[in-house]
Amino acid sequence: MKIATPIFVIFLFLFALTACQNEEELPTPVATIAVSSVDDGVDEDEAVGESSVSDPESTAAPAETSTPAPPTPTPLPPKLLTVCLGAEPTSLFLYGDDSLAATAVRHALYENLYTTLNYDYQPQGLQKLPSLDEGDARIGLVEVDEGDLIVNSAGNVVFLVPGVQFVRGDGEFVTFDRTLTAEGAEPLLMQQMTVDFTFKPMTWSDGTAVTAADSVFSHEIAAGSELPAEQAKIERTASYEATGDLSVTWTGLPGFLNPEYFTNVWTPLPQHQLGGFTAAELLAEDSAAPQPLSSGPFVVDAWQQGEALILRNNPYYYRADQNLPHITELTLRFDLAGETAVNQIAAGCDIVTHDAINLSQTPDVLAAAEAGTLLASFVSNNIFEHIDFGINSWENYGDGSRNGRPDWFEDVRVRQAITLCTDRQQLIDEITYGQSRILHAYIPDDHPLYPETAQAWDYDPAAGNSLLDEEGLEDTDGDGFRELVERDLNSTIVATTTMSITLGTNSESDIRLRINELVAADLAECGIQVNLYDVNANDWFADGPFSPLFGRRFDLATFAWRTDIHPPCSLYLSSNVTGPEERGFGGWGNINATGWIDEGFDAACNAALAALPGTPEYTENHLEAAQIFTEELPIIPLFHYLKTAVTQPTVRNFQPDASQPSELWNVAELDIDE
């Protein structure tokens, strides 16, 4: 599996996985993970039941606190809502189980500090998202010395010792030696980021005010967790301090300019309740610590192991004056996991989340929606299927000489023609039952950084055939397949090579095998002979020169990438082309299997990755990179897989979003008609 690697001072916390880097080489970032199997289009989390849960209202806290009386809202009739999840969480603790089911529950118990809707970020429990433009995020200069902890030019946390490559404060890449800090030398400066956050005035479910100190306490507990995303962020944190009752300041290590700097804040944990426990005690599977108090719209009332979690509304919720939450009792069921969505709705579920629904259920879901028994929602799950062109293959596989196949795909017009000949809507109709949409790039067309002028190559076999004709690929023998024709000076044919190509994928994916069958039939209509093959996933996705995919020994290859909020242009940088580093490639553990090299794309993508979100450089260069990509087509983008969720027709304010992992992100606003 291919994993993300960082670039000098840029580190994307998409999956918080880093590869070993050569200190002498400057790697380029990638922001995605290859998906070896899609499991019917749905990611599933395994979970086991927890033995017990303590009632936060009945467990003695380590320190006494005064508990004011809750506000007295206008009495409302009880409103009950039942949500059916795909699994039972193993822990509700903030830094415990990170499954989708646990994430859904935590939206009810811990107030979101921010959301990630529409491939962007929005403040919720924060007064605002910090911004470089508005001064609550700053990049300054700090003096460093030998032995200091820094982030080097490869994005790794290292000690500043001789031989380390880093970026000096003036932007110059240098290799550290002791002359830089010798007596009489100019101060050695590096860039350092500082970010201020201010919380909205929230209240714990025992009536105690949430404070900045609770967030600092949470940061300390997170440091003892094993969650990779938390560790990556914490390792690059120089300090995290309370600067007021509701304000904290995060300072990064020298050299760390984080594109997601406005997320370097920790969800508060109640220090007055949990301060007597160590991180290890709180994270232990059999922890004696109480269930933490809630800052969110609900509190735990009961955990019926193997069946359900019963939550009731939090009377101290800071948005209670807005009559939130609308629901007075929220039941989260997991005893129906494994049942179809239609059956779960019939069994009393008001909402069935996407982790409980697989792709094969779509026809039944659509039929029930047509009958009016439920409402169905389909949004992208950010796994996008695509077909890579083998543009620049490894060694002589496709070099057109030395017994290699003709270099079919170096010419962009051939790539455009093949894309025009591919009926992607047919794939969507069959694979996703018509619910997904055709992709034209590595981001969907509703992404805020998708260019308005992007080129779309919609299905048009006549246009595809015309392009192939213009390229001199013609059927000279009447067998239905085009040939590369060689002629002498008298235009007499002296040799022909049939345009016969291979299309491969991993054997375990029935979906990809079917995609390839359909694509092969499409291309035959354009006179291209396609030979299908499949390889087991371990070999298909392996690193190294003998992998058919990442060894760049293929003609066409079908697989998927998992992406996130930021456009993953780094997937197709020339510096990420797989191959031996000693020959100028990105290494056999890298990700660009196409071998595509485009200077304009590289310049735009690298500039976008070096910029911070919200700056003109970030926006303009991502737009430019995507524009070039849609014109040059190093791949055939196919479609996104989907998150499918269903609700009773009476449910209100249910708003799944492609870039927000759980549908319960706005659980306080969920409502139901009586």
Quick summary of this structure?
With 674 residues, the protein is of the alpha+beta class. 19% of the residues lie in helices and 21% in strands. It is globular and about 95 Å long.
Structure overview:
The chain has helices at 100-109, 212-222, 228-235, 271-274, 279-283, 341-346, 362-371, 412-420, 424-431, 461-470, 510-524, 537-540, 599-610, 616-632, and strands at residues 33-35, 80-84, 114-115, 122-123, 137-143, 149-151, 157-159, 165-167, 173-175, 189-198, 237-242, 247-252, 298-304, 308-313, 329-333, 351-352, 375-389, 473-474, 483-487, 493-498, 500-506, 529-535, 556-562, 635-647, 651-652, 671-672. With 674 residues, the protein is of the alpha+beta class. Strands 1, 2, 13, 14, 15, 16, 17, 21, 22, 23 and 24 form an eleven-stranded mixed β-sheet that branches. It has a four-stranded antiparallel β-sheet with strand order 5-10-12-11. It has a three-stranded antiparallel β-sheet with strand order 18-19-20. It is globular and about 95 Å long.
What CATH architecture of the largest domain would you give? Roll
Which secondary-structure class do the elements indicate? alpha+beta
Quickly count the helices.
14
Distance from N terminus to C terminus (CA atoms, Å) equals 48 Å
Radius of gyration: 28 Å
- In total, how many beta strands? 26
Largest sheet: 11 strands, mixed
Number of domain modules: 3
Output the CATH topology of the largest domain: Dipeptide-binding Protein, domain 3
CATH superfamily of the largest domain: Dipeptide-binding Protein, Domain 3
